[in-house]
Inverse folding.
């Protein structure tokens, strides 16, 4: 369960690509880790297609894994890669992998992208990989990890207490990341391959802090905090 002070003891954050977790909830992850939580970032895909121009996928994947590991260290998190190609997620295998990790790590909070969000605003389609990861996590955490008949293995069945969804159109929980903004910026700076003006990060390195602070201020405003990250919280165990 989440501690009375609002901090979980163990967190499993499952996202599609290197930099997804840092963008969506890097401040919360860093804050929880600083408060003593065990935090693991699970990166499902290799990031091998994360470039606007044609690239050699193996070389890009190696760079992005190194960036992901460095970024996780900046947040105080452990990095766990599943190594699936971008756009080619094996959903059944992913569910089994998430179930195994939940049973092994026994997190009280699992964080993932909200799969119900398909269109973001009026001009952006949510990446298919994000949606597939979100649905797989919902299935694995919501029903399968607690049932020993699904994906039997060495570890006993386990039910995570809460599921927190990022980039949701229906947020109901905000985490104050004021003390973790620097860690989030430092983590995102590790993703050098993504820092071009046309990348998902949307700004070159000198403007990265301004971008992070601006987004955190916008998200935090709705939750009554100066700098925040927004989540949709699903309580699975009272």
């Amino acid at each position: 369960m989440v501690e009375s002070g609002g901090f979980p003891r163990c967190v499993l954050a499952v996202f599609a690509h290197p930099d997804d977790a840092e963008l969506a909830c890097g401040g919360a992850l860093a804050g929880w880790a600083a408060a003593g939580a065990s935090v693991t970032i699970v990166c499902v895909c290799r990031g091998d297609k994360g470039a606007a121009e044609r690239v050699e996928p193996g070389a890009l994947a190696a760079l992005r894994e190194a960036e992901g590991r460095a970024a996780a260290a900046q947040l105080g998190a452990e990095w766990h890669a599943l190594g699936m190609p971008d756009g080619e997620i094996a959903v059944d295998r992913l569910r089994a992998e998430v179930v195994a990790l939940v049973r092994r790590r026994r997190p009280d909070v699992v964080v993932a992208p909200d799969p119900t969000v398909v269109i973001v605003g009026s001009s952006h389609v949510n990446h298919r990989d994000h949606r597939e990861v979100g649905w797989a996590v919902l299935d694995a955490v919501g029903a399968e990890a607690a049932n020993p008949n699904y994906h039997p293995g060495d570890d006993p069945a386990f039910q995570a207490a809460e599921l927190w969804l990022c980039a949701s159109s229906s947020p109901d929980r905000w985490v104050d990341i004021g003390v973790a903004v620097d860690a989030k910026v430092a983590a995102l700076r590790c993703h050098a391959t993504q820092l071009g003006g046309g990348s998902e990060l949307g700004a070159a390195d000198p403007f990265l802090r301004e971008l992070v602070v601006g987004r955190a201020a916008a998200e935090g405003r709705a939750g009554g905090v100066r700098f925040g990250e927004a989540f949709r919280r699903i309580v699975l165990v009272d």
Observations:
- The first helix runs from residue 20 to 34.
- The first strand starts at residue 10 and ends at 15.
- Helices lie at 20-34, 57-75, 91-105, 128-144, 181-189, 208-223.
- The beta strands are 10-15, 38-45, 78-84, 109-113, 119-120, 124-125, 162-166, 173-176, 228-235.
